[in-house]
Amino acid sequence: MKRTAFALILLASSAISAQPPSPATPPAAPVPRGAAAPASVYEVYQGCEKPASTYARTVTVDPKAGDTLEALFSAKKVLAGDHLILLPGDHGAILAKEVAAGAWIWLDFQPGATAKSITLKNISKILITGAEITSPTGKLFFASAPAHDIVLADSQLYGARDSKNWSAAEWLAAPNAIQADNVKNVSILRNAITNVRFGISASSRQPDVEGSRMNVLIKNNLLKGVSGDFIRPIGGNMAVIGNKGIDGYLSAADGDGNHDDFIQMFALPLTAVYDNVLIEGNYFCETTDVNRKFNADYQGISCFDGTYTNVTIRGNTVLASAYWGIAMYGGKHILIERNTVLSIRPRGDRKLRIAFMPMKRGAKGEDQTARDNVANVFLGFAAPAATSNNIAVPPADASTAFVEFNLSGSAFDLHPKKGGALDGKHAGALQSD
Q: Model confidence over 194-249: pLDDT tens digits?
């Protein structure tokens, strides 16, 4: 076991931009000093508490004047209900900890305010917006229990601005972007993540169903240039919605022993059972340049180890080159519908699959349904899986089935082509009318 509503048109681009990309949804203009936080734009998992719209006091932190957030937290001068305005400059490695429980705290990064990392410990109800977090190694954003009720939004996290000359060793040593370890009530919104090892991970360490309900929302993030897994929802009560992942790096031939996936579910420990996961409207393209260095063979959305129940995988697009586009090994009450899963670097028998498979320990899944999907191949759809209107499009037929499917130019418009095999079939992530 290894461990560690976009328009679906992807035009050719360079391997990695010289500048970190903008968030998938641009953040609002910086909030004026002392103003109320626009709480309505900070979604949380259903039933969780939203960030406050007003704050008890405003504190300005100016690194050019010698102020440091680290010192304020260490001296216990940060109070519940504070709106902390971080002025331009390097705020270093920030450890936010040990604030008495109470009202929300807002770390409000102004343009030009940067941090090397943000670590949250023993703190609750914290909103972080507009952060620019960069370091060549380590963890850019890390939260661990007993931290809880966290919102990270409209921020940039990257290992370097430019990775075009990186070696395989530099990709392997790149920082991990966002990790929430055994932390509940977390919302990760509209962040831009670039040139990192692993992207976003939210993981439970609880073996029982109720204890592992993390209440995590991962929505509308852009991840570009990742050498490990893009997103890992490891726990129950997870929603992964509208995220975009492009350009994965490093294969086993490059010295990378990780089994790379766009979205990977697995259990910690393996005997754990996780319940209630939604994976909807996400887009993944393994590479925007099939000829570039360090292309990798990615899986799409997968669960190979551990038991997940009540999982919906809907309206996602996966363009990759390994075998498993969407794969559920075991699992109960699983719905896979209206997804498009296609190989973009076909060779030999490498055709991207949607599959229901028995668990590695032999247990079969229960109450599994797949309908209205498009893939190169479908596997394991015998009883007990219920299936309907799943349409296989071999790699050789993709150019006639979709409006545009240009492998050499890395240009894709996955609406069904008029008169093609998918026209009027109402299958796939972009169904015809």
A: 999 999 999 998 889 999 999 999 999 999 999 999 999 999 999 999 999 999 99
Instruction: Tell me the sheet residues that pair with 69.
Output: none
Q: Residue 432: what pLDDT?
A: 67
**Could you tell me where the DSSP H helices lie in 57-201?**
69-74, 168-173
Question: Taking Cα atoms as reference points, which of 214, 244, 250 lies closest to residue 231?
Answer: 244
Residue 41: partners with Cβ closer than 8 Å, 6 or more residues away: 28, 153
Instruction: Identify the DSSP state of 3.
Output: -
Confidence label for 431 from pLDDT (cuts 50, 70 and 90): confident
What would the mean pLDDT of 326-350 be, rounded to a whole number? 90
Instruction: Say what the pLDDT of residue 9 is.
Output: 31
Instruction: Establish whether the linkage from the previous residue to 146 is cis, with ω within 30° of 0.
Output: yes
Q: What is the mean pLDDT of residues 134-154?
A: 96
SS3 of 11, please?
coil
Q: In 3D, which of 302, 315, 376, 290 has the Cα closest to residue 8?
A: 315
Of 254, 358, 259, nearest to 300 (Cα)? 259
Going by the DSSP 8-state scheme, the letter that residue 31 receives in this structure is: P
Residue with tokens 């669960």: 303
The model carries a pTM of: 0.91
List the one residue out of 125, 122, 217 whose CA is nearest residue 178: 217
Q: CA–CA separation, 120 vs 141, rounded Å?
A: 8
* β-bridge partners, 280: 241, 314
- The strand pair at 273-280 and 236-241 is best described as parallel
349 close to 324: Cβ distance less than 8 angstroms: no
The sign of the dihedral angle between the CA atoms of 421, 425, 427, 428 is positive
